[in-house]
Amino acid sequence: MRRRPNYPAGLGSLVWLFLVGLPLYVLLISTFRTTSNYSSQGPLTFPSQLTLQNYLNDFSNGFGQDFLNTLIVTVSVVAIVLLVVPPLAYAIVRARGRRITIVFRVFLLGLAIPAQAVIVPMFYVISQAGLYDHLIGIILPTAAFCLPVCTLVLTGSMRDITPDLYEAMAMDGASPWRVFLQLVLPLSRGGLSSVVVFAALQAWNGFLFPLILTQSDSTKVITLGLYNFQTEHGVDVPGLLSAVVLSMLPIFIVYLFARRALVQGLMGVGGK
Amino acid sequence: MSPLSFAAVSGRLKARRAGVGVTRPGFAWAVPATVFFLLFAILPLVLVAVLSFTSWDGIAAPRFNGLANWTKLIHDPVMIQSLWLTLLLTALGVLTQTPISILLGVWAAGHQRNRAVLSAVFFVPLLLSATAVSVVWRAILDPNFGVPSQLTWLFGNGNLLGNQSGSIAVLTFVGLWQFTPLHALIYQGGARAVPQVLYQAAAIDGAGTVRQFFHITLPQLRNTMITSMILMVVGGLTTFDTVLILTQGGPGTDTTVSAYYMYRKAFLSFDFGAGSAIALVLVLVATLISLAVVRLSGYDKMRSTAEGI
Question: How many residue contacts between A and B have a Cβ separation below 8 Å?
Answer without folding.
Answer: 322
